[in-house]
Design brief:
There is one protein chain. The protein has 215 residues and is α+β, with helices and mostly antiparallel strands. The protein folds into two domains: 61 residues, lambda repressor-like DNA-binding domains (434 Repressor (Amino-terminal Domain)); 132 residues, Umud Fragment, subunit A (Ribbon), CATH 2.10.109. It has a nine-stranded mixed sheet with strand order 2-1-3-4-9-5-6-7-8. The longest helix has 12 residues. It is elongated, with a radius of gyration of 20 Å.
């Protein structure tokens, strides 16, 4: 594996590529808001401690060696770490979003055993961003959600899903209704719901199994 000779430059590249900011990353690793900026711009500390480096490597889905870990350090093979694709689409994107290999914005590392505890096959999950507030208070605008695409191949379970209706990608709560119909519901009462929808008009892309947000 070719390792960047300047871990600070590599970390700054990752920050810019993902649209992150130094203060948020500093809070992610449990440090004061200026910690990451001082590391990158002032060289203090000279090296990231193993704990902080591991958190950032998992967050960006990269090998710790890219951020300064020694070559013989564990993690080069990402033992047990599944890189989940983060797609550059939102819940209101048009048809074709969430297609395999399309609009890839990056990857986020998750523990494979933890993913299996969620009841998902790790290779079947992707992440997208929620756009809008129709599912508040459960999902907020800007939340990152993990979508289990394998759920589209199984019998429908009530819950929050990513779906397409008339070619529009959206996040809604689905519930089976009498007579084989389908309820498509917004959690926010300010938005419309469709309690008696023809299932043939709803394409289930996947079930939402996890949500992450910035505080």
């Amino acid at each position: 594996m070719m390792v960047n000779s300047d871990p600070r430059a590599e970390l700054e590249r990752l920050v810019q590529a993902h649209g992150d900011d130094f203060a948020s990353l500093s809070r992610l690793v449990g440090r004061n808001p200026a910690y990451i900026q001082q590391y990158i711009r002032r060289g203090s500390p000279r090296q990231l401690p193993e704990r902080e480096r591991s958190i950032l490597a998992r967050y960006y889905g990269v090998a710790p060696q890219l951020l300064g870990a020694p070559e013989d350090a564990g993690g080069g093979k990402r033992g047990g770490l599944q890189l989940v694709p983060r797609l550059a689409v939102g819940a209101s994107a048009g048809a074709g979003a969430l297609a395999e290999g399309e609009a890839l914005a990056g990857r986020v590392g998750f523990d494979e055993a933890w993913l299996r505890k969620l009841g998902v096959e790790p290779r079947n999950v992707s992440m997208i961003r929620v756009e809008g507030d129709s599912m508040q208070p459960v999902l907020n605008d800007g939340d990152d959600i993990m979508v289990d695409k394998g759920a589209a191949l199984r019998p429908l379970r009530d819950g929050i899903h990513v779906i397409r209706i008339d070619g529009v990608l959206m996040v809604k709560r689905l519930a089976r209704a009498p007579g084989g119909r389908l309820s498509v519901l917004s959690d926010n009462p300010a938005y419309p719901s469709w309690p008696d929808h023809d299932p043939a008009g709803v394409q289930v892309v996947g079930r939402v199994v996890w949500v992450g947000r910035c505080l």
